[in-house]
From TrEMBL:
Top-level lineage group: Eukaryota
Protein name: Uncharacterized protein
Species whose genome carries this gene: Hygrophoropsis aurantiaca
Amino acid sequence: MSVQGVIQTGLYVITNVATGGYATMAYGNISSGLTQSTDDGNDDIKWSVTKLSSGKYTVVGLVFANYASASHSPNSGDTIKSSANNYQWIIKQSNTAGQYLISPVDNDSLYWSFSGQSATYVKLSDTADYWTFTRKTS
């Protein structure tokens, strides 16, 4: 069951509301793009989400322990990539309980997006895509 309210530190599966696809860090290479998966049996769809004292978040893939990151001057169309460096996100609940927007701290007018049913990579878009966070124990 997906959570509602403020996202707390924990292990989550992050699901796109429109496509039902999971944000996935399928590859361990630095700078590999985050992809969409429909396979709920792999640990690469699990994310360690940490709420920082600033109210911002870090998002780290469970399998490869790399951060989900964007450039420090993000633009619409940029792919979210894996990085060894800490990167912070804004995660805020939309007007619909349990549905969230994920934005880079450097440009909160951009959002994580699959940009359609057939998209392969998670990209930044100026059109909001909504996500759910489902808590996992391991």
